Amino acid sequence: MSGYAVVIERAEDGGYGVWSPDLPGCVALGDTPAEAVEEMRAAIRLHVELLQERGEPVPEPTAVGVDMVAAA
């Protein structure tokens, strides 16, 4: 399986959420960024398995560029 780009966001409660633009509805949470990413790995595996079981297409990972934008 190829790698999917993920977005890590800090939650208001201090935890972290992770989601992938290529896999709508596939999300994970964790107390730290590393924990959230590890949970996302498991979520992606399960998400892909479910799509395959249903006979639905599995999205291909897309190339993503990353930019940091600072607010003035």
UniProtKB/TrEMBL annotation:
InterPro entries in alphabetical order: HicB-like, TA_system_antitoxin, TTHA1013/TTHA0281-like
Domain HicB-like antitoxin of toxin-antitoxin system: 4-65
Annotated Pfam families: HicB_lk_antitox (PF15919)
Name this polypeptide is given: Type II toxin-antitoxin system HicB family antitoxin
